[in-house]
Amino acid sequence: MSTDKVNRLEEAGGVGYVWVDDRVPASGYLKxxxxxxxxxxxxFMLGEIALYSFILLLLSGTFLSLWFKPSMIEVIYDGSYAxxxxxxxxxxxxxxxxxxxxxxxxxLMRQIHHWGALFFVAAISVHLxxxxxxxxxxxxxxxxxxxxxTLLTLALLEGFAGYSLPDDLLSGxxxxxxxxxxxxxxxxxxxxxxxxxxGEFPGTDFIPxxxxxxxxxxxxxxxxxxxxxxMLVWFQKHTQFPGAGRTERNVVGxxxxxVYTAKAGGFFFVVxxxxxxxxGLFQINPIWMYGPYIPDQITAGSQPDWYIGWLEGGxxxxxxxxxxxxxxxxxxxxxxxxxxxxxxxxxxxMALYPWLEAWATGDRRPHHLLDRPRNAPTRTAIGAMSLxxxxxxxxxxxxxxxxxxxxxxxxxxxxxxxxxxFVVPPLxxxxxxxxxxxxxxxxxxxxLHGYESGVIKRLPSGKYYEQHQPISDEEHAVIMxxxxxxxxxxxxxxxxxxxxxxxxxxxxxxxAKLSHFFYGDQVPMPTAAEIEEARHHEAEITAERDxxxxxxxxxxxxPRQ
Amino acid sequence: xxxxxxxxxxxxxxxVHHPRRSxxxxxxxxxxxxxxxxxxxxxxxxxxxxxxxxxxxxxxESMYIPFFGDVNASNLLLGLLMGLSLFLIGAAAIHWAKKxxxxxxxVDQRKAEASTQEARDxxxxxxxxxxxxxxxxxxxxxxxxxxGALALVGLPAIVLLRDLGPLPGNVLRTTMWxxxxxxxxxxxxxxxxxxxxxxGTLISAVPEGLKEVMEEEGNLNELxxxxxxxxxxxxxxxxxxxxxPDAELPWTYQGILCFSKxxxxxxxxxxxxxxxxxxxxxxxxxxxxxxxxxxxxIFGPAARSLPQLAITVDDDGYLVAQEGFTEPVGPSxxxxx
Lengths: 561, 337
Fold this sequence. Notes:
- By secondary structure, chain A is mostly helical.
- In chain A, the strands form 4 sheets. In chain A, strands 1-4 form a two-stranded antiparallel sheet.
- Chain A is globular.
- Chain A has helices at residues 3-11, 15-23, 27-34, 45-65, 91-101, 106-133, 142-164, 169-183, 189-197, 206-236, 256-281, 287-290, 309-317, 333-361, 377-396, 399-405, 410-449, 473-480, 505-519, 528-557; strands at 37-38, 74-76, 88-90, 250-255, 323-325, 329-331, 451-458, 464-469.
- Among the domains of chain B are: 21-99; 183-336, Rieske [2Fe-2S] iron-sulphur domain (Rieske Iron-sulfur Protein).
- Chain B has 8 helices and 13 strands.
- Chain B has helices at 21-24, 26-56, 73-99, 117-134, 140-153, 155-159, 210-217, 221-226, and strands spanning 62-65, 69-72, 106-109, 183-185, 202-207, 228-232, 256-260, 272-274, 279-281, 288-290, 296-299, 311-313, 319-321.
- In chain B, the strands form 4 sheets. Chain B has a 4-stranded antiparallel sheet. In chain B, strands 8-9-10-11 form a 4-stranded antiparallel sheet, with no helix packed on it. Chain B has a two-stranded antiparallel sheet with strand order 1-2.
- In chain B, helix 2 (26-56) runs antiparallel to helix 3 (73-99).
- At the A-B interface, helix 6, helix 8, helix 9, strand 4 and helix 11 of A face helix 3, strand 3 and helix 8 of B.
């Protein structure tokens, strides 16, 4: 051990650090990490928002757990909220009222916790869209994509569990629906429901059980998955957008210490701060207005939190298909399909998407440069189509509110949405794909002719023209990144040269067709010769114009005859 | 199969760095320093303010804020001050990083994605050696018994879950309604005579003795399935009811019908009654039932009609059930049939 070094660190005030470093040598590793580079882009903050919201949820949730009593034992309320005094309710609901009215800062923490949860799911969702539309899920990041999809699913579950705990009229109604959904599961549904609820609905076991799921089980899994998620980001290094100086082999940005530490650390506080401001300023989930859960009561216009809306919409939109199959068993497709089968298909397809696309395009190269959405038109169109599908389900989740607000017939709204669900997404697909290709064409134009400067000039002959300017090196690099897009696969031959039919011919053919679907319509990048010719052409025109101006100036100067 | 890219993006140098104002003008740098400092100070003040507000503001005091209306003063002040104390730290740190820390982008090289073939081969060799050393290839009994044990070891944990709840048995098919049981108005818990119900009204009702059953069981289970509603309509408006052809008495009494209040879709209580059309709408998913026509579904995701409870009057003239429900109420389930 070099005493010099120890002294320097100790003199710098790192006595405690040296104590640790003597036992767990970390200096070499830390030194390297200080210079770790993170690329900068606003959209890289979305995942950060999700992470910080989660930490905020752990902190505010711990605070709430100090007072919340997860119990369905019936009590008679006797607290500061006068309108409910003397009302029978569960201990869970009564303690939530206490947190809201008798504990200073309790309402604030409840509202922070609820707003935080809404932000958490929103941030995950938008982060996932960013990753999808930029192709960040491609090799080598498929695992992290799957972890992300799992985290989204868990966040939905965790949010719903938290929403259900206070045992108010809205949350109890949500649980009733959840139990109805459980009952629709073939073969085991009835048993599942009886085991989960400890008997019939609502029973007295469920909220204590849900509490353990909400505060321990699911957050524990989320925390573990977030850790792995971040470790993979760390070791695989962050992706970056194309630009001058950025390649597949490097990463350009700011060092972890000090710039990124200050920025990300600061952003951590910004997320906390904004959520706290929301908690102070904007009311959310005023459970005292709903009253305690009573199974034969309901309010009109019941709405779940935003992220459950699409599932709610599916339940509302589904036609009433229920079959009794031979043997006397019931299949409630009207419940089973929208609430379990469809989400199952959607989440599975989402999780498998990296492999599906890699297979369809044949592109199994590692990618560290992100795609601009226009450069992968079919993927972007698939994403937009899926968003439209999701959005329509989500809107249908509020069909009663829409009907009420716009004075429409609620049945008509539902019918319109049923039709739209099949008609709109394909249109969105076609439209998005065309827009992407149009943007590619514009990019090509910029490479060949520069950008339209907006400067209009008039020639002596009276002719107007707009001056084009060459694009910057940065923009050039951004546009040229599309050159790395894969070529569509060649169509396979049905028979080889000996006349034997190829193995897997149909599969290979499908793959080739899909790859043409993905990358067959790309607007060709201009070749060097084309760029040269365009420049030459531009120079000729400029020369002509200069000539004209010169001649006219010469004429103007020459003495009149 | 190898993938051909359509072309190759040329490698370009990093863009030229343009210095910021604070890089070249010491006064601008000084100004940024002051701004960062004051942001931090503001946060400190907000933290102290939070403590003051916590102590000084009574929890039930409300104050009027334009556009917001009457709000809880304690919640508003605590939220604002906590929000500011956090937000200002963040704002200060970001401002500091953006104005005073270097904004020159640096380049790091990525490492190879995969391990080298050499490393893989070495790993494989170690693994093969290790497996050899365990001797499983020569002693297959160990391997077989180990997998057997591992397959069984999780089962006790699953079996332990058995007592989470009772088996469903018959309880989803039955409610407490029985022959001659009085129908009580849910609001008042009092029995009701037909003449107390005017044509066009709908009230929520429960079986007599429900309160006692719930107290004894200590839960709301019975209410969740035996809640009903009484509707009186002009008998000429009733298109049909669920009275079976072989019934001694009609299930409807003098235009009074009794239906389960629990939606046959996923079990929400029904709630929106349209008097003129006799349509009953579920507020959860808009399943709509025609109460004048056997409670049949006329729109929405519910598939089954609302179960009707056969009613009549007892000797004292109170409405009673003729018998219990003849089919399960509420959402469908696998064994329902």
